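Customer ticket, subject: "Can you confirm the structure for Porin?"

Message body: Hello, I'm evaluating your service for our small team and ran a test protein. I'd like someone to confirm that this is what the system normally returns, since I don't have a reference to compare against.
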Amino acid sequence: MFKQTILAATISAAAITAQAAEPLPSTADMWKVIQEQQQEIKNLKGQLQQTETKVAATADAVEQSATGKLSKMAEWVEKTKIGGYGEHHFNRFEDKDDKVDAHRFVMFLSHQFSDTVRFFSEIELEHSLAGDGKPGEVELEQAYIEWDYTQGHSVQMGQFLIPVGIMNETHEPDTFYGTERNVVEAKIIPATWWETGIMFNGEIAPGLSYSAAVHSGLETDEANIRSGRQKSANAVANDLAYTARIKYTGVQGLELAATVQYQEDISQGALATADAMLTEVHAIYSIDAFSVRALWAEWDVDGDVFEAAGTDSQEGWYIEPSYKVTDRLGVFARYSEYNNKAGLSSSVDYEIWDYGVNYWLTPNVVLKADYTDYVNDSTGTDDDAFNLGIGWSF
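Agent reply: Thanks for trying us out. I re-ran your input and got the following:
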């Protein structure tokens, strides 16, 4: 045991002596190592700086891209407008079923492409449900490009409302009295009426403006004017129509307008002769809380078929005074006369009284209550009714 211990100590001492005998690195070698390490550190710093530069550039690019996208989105939001209107009705008839109707739900969408070029559209759902066997329709009422081609003059190209009457172009429920639209403009004109074509608008003098259009026309061989609207839905266009209006608004509170439309063949080729002319004039005058509207319209249709049916001449007129009791509450009365084919073998003469109230919750939300009284009832159906409505626009 003692000999083994002495042997181990001897081996260990020999190893230590051998290590001590190894030569130490020279100063030049140590300096070279230090220089190599310094160069490596310098290279790492350079790489780090390049990485920082790339990260900063990437951050700037991301920020610029995000800013650009936000700017484009803000520009789109600023130039694109959304609006709409709608109305719900309740009609309590004297001699037929009462009705509740989500009469209209309409959405507007417009976009300003430039200072002189813009787009406008209007889509409507009528009577809540559309489709086979359903009471309603989904309709594209307007879709046109408007171009201000010179100062004070513009042109509309596409599908637009015909410039005729009081309600055809302005029919949001908060802009008129009565739950239902007046029958003269609905049946005779017939509002709401749109076609596809081109229309020029402009101002001739201060307060004096014009509209002139060439567009698709009606199609009927019975002179039932309202049913002749084709609504730009694969519309037969063998014969176009021409519309011209002049309007004066040079006196505060006063509007005077006259429209003439001519279509050489209202049957679109179904009959030998069927030229038709619509003439309409109206006046609106408002002073303080009092306002009055008056309108007259007539269709003159040539052709043996229309003469035999007694529908070669269809006309109507109404007068409507109203008074704003307060800023929110208004009362009105309307007297109307018109004749119309009404699905019968000959035209029928109507006399109608409407009277009631409007109450505006806000300038664009209105509640309505009114009564419709048919003075004569030559059709055998009593359409007298008490009506309630709510309407809005935005």
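A couple of notes from the result: The chain has a mean pLDDT of 90. DSSP finds four helices and 16 strands in the chain. Feel free to reply with more questions.
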